[in-house]
Amino acid sequence: MPIPGTPSRAELVEHLVATRIAGEVATPRENNLSHYRKLANGDRHYWLGLELGERWTDEQDVLAVMAERVGVNDDPEHRYGQDTIDPELTVDGLERMAGRLRKAAEGRQRVLLATGHPGGLLDVHRATAAALRDAGCDIVVIPDGLTTEEGYVMQFADVAVLEHGATLWHTHSGAPMKTILTALEREGRTLPDLVVADHGWAGAAGQYGVDSVGYADCNDPALFLAEAEGTVQVTVPLDDHVTSPRHYDPMTAYLLTEAGLL
After folding, report:
1. What is the pLDDT of residues 232-241, one digit of tens each?
2. Per its UniProt record, what InterPro entries does this chain match (predicted)?
3. What is the pTM (predicted TM-score) of this model?
4. In angstroms, rounded to a whole number, what is the distance separating the alpha carbons of residues 97 and 136?
């Protein structure tokens, strides 16, 4: 489907709140705090392909970063009920990401796009890939026959995904991205100049040393910690699976317009 007209910043903020991409989001506070705690306790499922070492073992430190970079409630005593993503921070993140996309387009760089949340974000990445290709970028084609313990690493509409049981798979794992990057090196191919992704796909790329920008929900703190440390260049806060993937179209249009790609 075509992307609708580009909203102004104020219109986009209003849209993000109305569709619950930001504002009062569906993810409950108790889920957020549970994920922050598990990350701090060393559960690698929540590290999203990153190596956090012993740097984030206090869940209150994680909460402080999430309050600053996402806009969740900063009160550690707020344990249940509603939590939030600040839509202004979402748009700030989109504008920072647009700057990196503009650099990629100007340099006609090699770009790899991937998603661990195909039910929500596949078309955001597809549209970004198409715009970058039109601008002269080389969209990386991944090697054939790649697998992880979870399934097959495939590419649809220029976006790398995990496929399992004839279904595109929701995954937090960094293994698919690491599998792609190591396969590219094994074949003697140049690594991407930029990865545009989410979940472990973005985290693993940054950990590998590739420029990485991505999207993350308020219950996925690892990418925001990585941005704070400089391992990931940009992390855009949003609810990554709202009721319709079409709700992301105005956001995508704003991103690509800011990048000079639309």
Report:
1. 999 999 999 9
2. Phosphatase_SCO2771
3. 0.96
4. 18
